[in-house]
Amino acid sequence: MKSIFITYDQAHHEGVAEALKSSLCRGYTLFPTVGGCGTKTGEPHLGSHAWPAMNEAVITICDDDRVEHLLARLRKLDVDNPLLGLRAFVWNIEQTL
């Protein structure tokens, strides 16, 4: 199993939700308001007067065979909207309860 942590501009919410659904990643935890700043490009998303935009984050645990489909969908969202920002990180899951 793999854990996929996805951070993205709030404008991507519907696209990320659809990518999870179409990839059969039913279970996830949503962090609806997170701040941050990308490492390469883009402006900070801090919810402040100077930087009013905010991000969201999702973490999902899914079977290994679903990861590439989900990443492909997320990659397309990011390529189609490069100024919004979207990142996904994949980790191995050692154990579950």
Would you identify the regions where 5 or more consecutive residues have pLDDT less than 50? none
- Give the number of helices: 2
Distance between the termini: 13 Å
Category from helices, strands and their pairing: alpha+beta
- CATH class group: Alpha Beta
- Shape-level CATH architecture: 2-Layer Sandwich
At CATH level 3, the topology is Alpha-Beta Plaits
- Sheet-strand content, in percent, reads 25-35%
Explain what this protein looks like in three dimensions.
The chain has 97 residues and is of the alpha+beta class. The protein has one domain: Alpha-Beta Plaits (2-Layer Sandwich), CATH 3.30.70.120. The protein has two helices and four strands, in the order E-H-E-E-H-E. The chain has a four-stranded antiparallel beta sheet, covered by helices on one side. Helix 1 packs antiparallel against helix 2. The protein is globular and about 40 Å long. The chain starts with a strand and ends in a 5-residue tail after the last strand. The model has no long low-confidence stretch (mean pLDDT 92).
